[in-house]
Amino acid sequence: MESLDPSVLRVVVFSGDELISLGTGVVVGRGDGGVYVATNYHVIANGSANGIRVLAPARRSAGGEDEDGRPAVIEREAEYRRSDTGRSKDIAILFVPGLDRPPVIVLDGALNRDAEVRALGYPYTDLALWRRVQSRPWITNGRVSALERESINSGGSAVDQIAHTADLNSGMSGGPLVDHCGRLVGLNTAVLEGANGANIAIGVADVRRLARELGAQIETDGGACGVEPIAATVAPVSADTPTKTRKGGGFPGWALFAGISALGLLALGGGLVIFLRRRGHRAGGAQPCPSGLLFVGVGDAVRDQQRAIGRAELEAGAELGRQPGFGSDSTSRRHAIVKWIGQGFVVRDVGSMNGTTVNGRDIRGMGDQPIVEGDFITLGDRYATFRIQAL
């Protein structure tokens, strides 16, 4: 799936000189010398005339970077294309003249329950903070939980609703929900309090119809979406590295190591070590998920817990239920996920406040990032690191 970053914009709303709302929008079409951007009506509802703006990172090819190497942010005034139908469905279509951003492909077909989806958007409701730390949209993964058609607001019109488990944060309202082929399937709209992680997106059918009525030229696709290819490969075992064997031949194994740096050890008084062992499989083609034992050790205390890693997924954060966590203000409760896909491990930041890095590169908003032997991942400023290496 090609990067959707250029199509996801920060929506900023003013009433006079007062900043009153921050949200996210997605480019859904072109026309009239500009682009059409879809967002939620509640994001822009209280803005004054000429008080709606969109912000987007400048293209790196244009050489626009700030002093920290992040893409410079460009700003454009946006025009709200008024629609009573859109307002009653919590959909707003903005027109941004002179902006050159690629529209997303819009789904023109059915979305299945339990389909894999991704939510994109710009968290934070503090504009100054966002300008300092966030130049790319965050990406969170989840699945469709339910599909309904009812009103979003009291007295509003019925609209297709998608309940899903991809994490949302304040500021992501109006951002895109896409399938694993990158097609727009909905606009993220609400977080359901006390619903065990269920969030709501408005289905794309109403967005598509309204944008076309208001003049947008939209590209759609209704075909089947196959399994998403992910560029992750297993690092080869060096010739002088012994491999564990069992009957039927030798197989390479893997371990997932997590530890605390010297500074973190001083702060915590102990290291966190996580080992993920898998029984080997022959190289070539997609490999089954790892299975085996997950060992967690904190300092000198080691706790062995036998579990099947059915989805080969390991979550790291400040607290992991009854599992030992990092216990640091810089580490979010849910910070990062490491998992096995196809032939290798990947890591994904899940909306942490202080970021996750791979070999010094911030991966917030970048989705699943392949990691191989010798790669290091840090969580916040606690200097916890993971390492993948061959056994």
TrEMBL record:
UniProt-listed InterPro entries: FHA_dom (IPR000253), Peptidase_S1_PA (IPR009003), Peptidase_S1_PA_chymotrypsin (IPR043504), Peptidase_S1C (IPR001940), SMAD_FHA_dom_sf (IPR008984)
Record-level Gene Ontology MF annotations: serine-type endopeptidase activity
PANTHER family, alphabetized: SERINE ENDOPROTEASE DEGS
Keyword DNA damage: no
Signal sequence, renumbered to the chain: none
GO terms classed as biological process: proteolysis
Alphabetical keyword list: Hydrolase, Membrane, Protease, Transmembrane, Transmembrane helix
All copies of domain FHA, residue ranges: 307-363
Entries under SMART domains matching the protein: FHA
UniProt protein name: S1-C subfamily serine protease
Family annotation (Gene3D superfamilies): 2.60.200.20, Trypsin-like serine proteases (2.40.10.10)
Origin superkingdom: Bacteria
TM segment ranges: 254-276
A Pfam family annotated for this UniProt entry: Trypsin_2
